[in-house]
Amino acid sequence: MTNILICGVGGQGIVLTSKLIAATAMEKGSPVRSAETIGMAQKGGSVTSYLRIGECSAPMFCRGEADIMIAFEPAEAVREFACLRKGGTVVLNTHAVMPVTAALTGGSYDPSVMEDFLDRADCRVISLDAEKLSAQIGSPKVMNMIMLSAAVRSGVLPFSLEDVAEVMKKTVRPQFVEMNMKALYNTVL
Amino acid sequence: MGNAAIAKGALAAGLNVISGYPGTPSSEVLETAAKTDKDIYVEWSANEKAALELAAGASYCGARSMVTMKQVGLNVASDPLMSLAYVGVKGGMIIMVADDPGPISSQTEQDTRTFAAFSKLPCFDPSSVEEAFSMVADAFELSEKYHTPVIFRPTTRVCHGYASIDIPDKEEWFVNKPTGFERDPSRWVIFPRLSYKAHTEIEKRNRMLSQEGCKGNCILKGSRKGIASHGISAAYVHEVLEGLDDKPSFFKVSMPFPFPEKTALEFLSCVDEVLCIEELDPVIEKELTYVCGKYHLDVKIRGKLTDDIHPAGENDPTYVRDAVQGFVSGVCPEREETVTPKLPARPPVLCAGCPHRASFYAVKMAMRNMKAVFCGDIGCYTLGNAQPLDMVDTCLCMGAGVNIAQGIGKIEPDTYCFAFVGDSTFFASAVTGVINGVYNQANMTLVVLDNSTTAMTGHQPHPGTGRTMMGDIVDKIDIEAVLHGVGVETVVTVDPFDLENAVNTVRCVAALEGVKAIIFKSPCAVIIKQGKPCTIDKDKCTECKACIKRIGCPALVISDGKVTVERSLCTGCGLCTQVCPVNAIERGAQV
Lengths: 189, 591
Known about the structure:
The complex is a heterodimer. By secondary structure, chain A is of the alpha/beta class. Chain A has a single domain, classed as Pyruvate-ferredoxin Oxidoreductase, domain 3, CATH 3.40.920.10. Helices cover 40% and strands 23% of the residues of chain A. Chain A has helices at residues 14-27, 74-79, 102-105, 111-120, 130-137, 143-153, 161-171, 174-185; strands spanning 2-9, 32-36, 46-53, 66-71, 84-93, 123-128. In chain A, helix 1 crosses helix 7, helix 6 (143-153) packs across helix 8 (174-185) and helix 7 (161-171) packs antiparallel against helix 8 (174-185). The radius of gyration of chain A is 16 Å and the shape is globular. Chain B folds into 4 domains: 2-209, Thiamin diphosphate (ThDP)-binding fold, Pyr/PP domains (Rossmann fold); 218-329, Rossmann fold (3-Layer(aba) Sandwich), CATH 3.40.50.920; 355-521, Thiamin diphosphate (ThDP)-binding fold, Pyr/PP domains (Rossmann fold, 3-Layer(aba) Sandwich), CATH 3.40.50; 535-586, Alpha-Beta Plaits, CATH 3.30.70. Chain B contains 21 helices and 21 strands. Chain B starts with a helix and ends in a 5-residue tail after the last strand. The interface between A and B is large, with 49 and 51 residues.
């Protein structure tokens, strides 16, 4: 059983990432359950997706039971930190997304405080600036693929980059396959 | 997705007709049915009442029909629902009502299980995606066997939960051939005498069903302590029990109405104490308390009514685990609290480029320093309440703002009363309000925010879009013509992004007597091709931040202390270029 939590902000491609992980696991013959927040949360709000690969009854798991957290945003990683099991893995995109209201209310925050918190916590942190990497590859739209790539490389997910590539080729529109392949394989950690 | 499983379960069980009105978390059932099978009839109806009546008509002809809505939609459809319970149906009919514990995206935390008991209709309550799939077929069978509509009420976590399930090929699906409408006024025309007879039969049937139960209800025998649960909470309980050595007894209620009294008695006979873990109303808890009283059982029933379970909100797996462990061991498990740095709040806001922002801002400018009240309604535009727009004074339910504005106007005649309503909500339930205002000589300004879609629930077509769910292109119903038709003399259509004109229009129209209307027409920013982002002339910008303080667009951000356009978000709508006091923001080159 692998419990995965994906978190971030509406519009970052979290739901798509969740679907791709689910499809890849199912292709490998594992049962999958998942649940995600959709609705009001899409409009700039926090988004979380629970994924469970293996035999289970419920689509969500308890606090402290996630084996891996794929965090698309540092503050969201800290917000959902209680979900992670002791010694669990955090794949962290260090690029902060300020709340849309930050400019108005001064509600901005310092992402380094969040990174410090994670560094001191009982977990393995794999940090990367997926925003910058996706810009280097040529499209902000492949950021989720870069995050997924890092998550697969962490060794926690029960499948390989090749498995993801096979499923991605079937689900992504042909003109975007090459770009996504680049994102999946060219990530340097 | 659970909703897709419900749709496919219905199709595999011979569904002929599906109708509904969009509402989170129910909308994907109808959308999946439409995509999966082109041979059935599908429609997004004008509202839930229309949808339920259409499905009933189809069922009178022997069709297997389903009507979908969210829990508050059932309030709209409650009139035909209550009567249809007496009249009954011929072809199987499922009323699919999605409940929203939390609530995550609803006005109320009402429990459709309670509505089922009130309407006396059998109710199914699935606890997983798999169960939702197979239960639909059971629901159709029960419906046809007893000639009654049945309620099917998943909650958000079942609707929007995913699981891997096997769906049979289309060749294996049951095919239902409607036999046609047979005239029989003694059956299809409701009269007091018929209702009396039907009422007697309904009570008899429900008593029988309460003995019979359904196959989803189950008991797992364990210790003298028992847990009773339902829906997604039952799935959470199931996982906790797997990890316990001294397992309590477990009662899962899949058909909460008619309550399975016989099965409940069997469960209660092997326990001394029961914890009911439910979401929304304490339905099982009250029923078990009743059964204990009726049969003089010395069993203690605990739950919401005894403050052992929270009275409102959603149950999550951690809450359920702690509740079960606390109940079994008698000691409340201590929760480790992690102290985190202060986290930024992320309230939902109108999208960058949203035409509603421009409309609200235009009305706000026009009514500056005037006594005015702004009645809001249900849709994306409820978010007009957020700072800095702060333009929603009331919001109650679909279409209510139109009449609330009239009521305020009757008591405060010196107030400019506005009612904001979206295009889909206008057709669903605001037209009668307008007729009411015209007839009863109200003074109010109706503002229709026409973005040519049902944006909040995922861009479904509606009567004003000229597209149906069957894929047909039909005549659009013209909002302006409807308003003229019901006696609104002044109806002005204006583009909200033409700010100066919009503000002037609001001033002129609001000053008129009677019911008058402004239609702000501009498509939803999410469904149109986006323009080039705006740019800020750094030499002209004085960093006064007026743009941010006035319209609060998410594409206007402060980066390194300077106001900047977030190019990935900006749609080039140009509203900010019109509010900048020093004209420092320029439109992007036109596409």
